[in-house]
Design a protein that fits this description.
By secondary structure, the protein is α+β, with helices and mostly antiparallel strands. It has a single domain, classed as 2-Layer Sandwich (GMP Synthetase, Chain A, domain 3), CATH 3.30.300.20. It contains four helices and two strands; from the N terminus they run αβαβαα. It has a two-stranded antiparallel sheet. Helix 1 packs across helix 3. It is elongated. The protein starts with a helix and ends in an 11-residue tail after the last helix.
């Protein structure tokens, strides 16, 4: 069984966002009893599979959601959201984009 690279990207985002949320909550003194972090994205597989040259390769949109079991106030939740987005490496990389260099070498 092979893993879908798109699923792996979303899982990396969820993992990074969850760890960042926990660290931010600890740093600002917010108790989170439990949390669920989910990501989903819109992907046209025709592009990825090479079926259509017009269809883009990659996600068109990604949605990240958090369900928190916490006594945090609305202001604290807003601060958690802002800081989690700011300090999550995967989130920031996706939002800002990054230059990538590719190199192929023959052995």
């Amino acid at each position: 069984m092979q893993v879908c690279s798109g699923d792996m990207l979303l899982q990396a985002l969820v993992a990074c966002a969850g760890v960042t949320l926990s660290a931010v909550a600890t740093a600002i003194g917010v108790n989170i009893k439990d949390s669920i972090v989910e990501a989903e994205g819109d992907l046209d597989f025709r592009g990825t599979l090479g079926v259509s040259k017009e269809a883009p390769v990659g996600f068109k949109a990604i949605r990240l959601s958090f369900i928190l079991d916490s006594d945090a106030t609305a202001d604290q939740i807003q601060t958690l959201a802002k800081l989690t987005e700011r300090y999550c490496v995967v989130y920031q990389t996706l939002v800002k984009g990054v230059q990538i260099e590719t190199e192929f070498n023959k052995q």
